[in-house]
From TrEMBL:
Catalyzes the transfer of a geranyl-geranyl moiety from geranyl-geranyl pyrophosphate to cysteines occuring in specific C-terminal amino acid sequences. It catalyses: geranylgeranyl diphosphate + L-cysteinyl-[protein] = S-geranylgeranyl-L-cysteinyl-[protein] + diphosphate. This is Geranylgeranyl transferase type-2 subunit alpha. It comes from Colletotrichum abscissum. It holds the Pfam family PPTA. It is an enzyme of class 2 (transferase). InterPro entries: Prenyl_trans_a. Residues 81-149 are annotated as: Disordered. GO terms for molecular function: Rab geranylgeranyltransferase activity. Its EC number is 2.5.1.60.
Length: 416
């Protein structure tokens, strides 16, 4: 059995040498954890390079260690990714660039001594030349220090590079993907828009390479949608990428017809695509026909592929079901809808001549034959009922684990 191109093999008992190596790795991991916990939650210097190096060692052993990721974030926000303070306001004390970087006040500083405390009910004496707030009228606040863009960019790129080997080894680790998202958000928060946008565009290119290596990684597909949405947003002065993303799904589908994530992404893009194209009724109907042709050709190649049937079902249901979702061709008449459904039923019947042992074919026929009379506003006729009974008998043989479902379906169609 294969999963994402990686063959699965039976696990063999570990040798004594392997066991000792694993025990040494566990001991090393626990030692690193203890060292990190001793440095947390508030080391003497939150941006201490030694603490950052400690998280590097720990995360290379265990990228699921969320405490290490959080400590790493704090090291960066107190160091090379720290933001300059906007300066004190006339009525507020100076604030640190990050709350996590501010050491707790000492007991001496936190409570006034008896010699310096002001008795209750007595106001402090005014300072000459000051206004109501105690600030000098003509005082000018110093401008905040400028952000070193090159330093921030270097830090972000180094951190993004740090996660790449981890992603290659652990492509479905939520914490790695979340950390990359956090890094990219820092680019928006700290850097000028043109520089931040360039970093996000590079990230989109990197995700494309990742999906070339692992085409069906749903983590990477979800991450790609987030990157694209941000590139389209006002935060990066973005514009629509729906055409490019739709073309990307076509490319990925042509590479691998079984890429469920690509088909799913395609179905989500279609409403926006047609709206932004300003497609009229004729263009929408042509688009629907092209999509049906695309998936029909794919089914002729791989009728056992579940992802193809899901997309085909999406297209047919988009025509037949009044579910409130955006329609590809909303102006189709009932007669036109019925014509499309009949054609799909006949094409699927043709598949039975060569593939009479594939459950998905019978499931599609059962769904579409039941949808046809609903579209035409009538009941099932005798011929349709007989065909449903024949297909139901066959699907029971191929999928006996769902006998309860088939019984309910027979009752719904009055076949019992």
């Amino acid at each position: 059995m294969e999963s994402h191109g990686i063959a699965r093999t039976a696990r063999k008992p570990r040798t004594e040498a392997q066991l000792q190596a694993d025990l040494a790795k566990i001991a090393n991991l626990r030692a690193l954890e203890d060292a990190l916990l001793r440095a947390s939650p508030r080391p003497a210097d939150p941006a201490d390079p030694a603490t950052l190096a400690l998280t590097t060692k720990l995360l290379r052993l265990n990228p699921e260690h969320y405490t290490a990721w959080n400590v790493r974030r704090r090291c960066l926000t107190c160091g090379s990714l720290s933001r300059p303070s906007p300066g004190p306001s006339p009525s507020a004390p100076p604030a640190s660039s990050s709350a996590a970087c501010t050491p707790p006040p000492s007991s001496a500083a936190a409570s006034p001594s008896s010699s310096t405390a002001i008795p209750p009910g007595h106001a402090s004496p005014p300072v000459p030349g000051s206004g109501k707030s105690g600030t000098t009228a003509d005082a000018q606040l110093p401008p905040p220090p400028a952000v070193n863009d090159e330093k921030v960019v270097d830090t972000l790129k180094n951190e993004l590079m740090f996660t790449i080997p981890l992603l290659l080894e652990f492509p479905k680790s939520y914490w790695i993907w979340k950390y990359r998202s956090w890094l990219l958000q820092q680019a928006i928060d700290i850097l000028p828009k043109p520089i931040a946008r360039r970093i996000w565009e590079e990230e989109l290119g990197l995700v494309s390479k990742m999906l070339t290596k692992d085409r069906r990684n749903f983590h990477a597909w979800g991450y790609r949608r987030k990157v694209v949405a941000t590139l389209e947003s006002a935060a990066l002065d973005g514009a629509s990428l729906v055409e490019a993303e739709f073309a990307y799904t076509t490319k990925m589908i042509n590479t691998d017809l079984s890429n469920f994530s690509a088909w799913h992404n395609r179905s989500n893009l279609i409403p926006r695509l047609l709206e932004e194209r300003g497609a009229d009724d004729a263009a929408r109907q042509k688009f629907l026909e092209d999509e049906l042709d695309l998936v029909r050709e794919a089914l002729n190649v791989g009728p056992e592929d579940q992802s193809l049937w899901f997309y085909h079902h999406f297209l047919v249901q988009n025509m037949t079901e009044p579910d409130g979702r955006p329609k590809i061709a909303p102006s189709l008449s009932s007669t036109e809808k019925a014509s499309y459904v009949r054609r799909e039923i006949e094409d699927i019947k043709d598949l039975l001549e060569d593939y009479d042992d594939i459950t998905w074919i019978y499931k599609a026929l059962l769904d579409y034959m039941r949808a046809l009379p609903r579209v035409e506003g009538r009941e099932l006729n005798e011929e349709e009922t007989e065909e449903l009974q024949t297909w139901m008998t066959k699907v029971r043989q191929l999928d006996p684990m769902r006998n309860g479902r088939w019984t309910d379906l027979e009752k719904e169609c009055s076949l019992l």
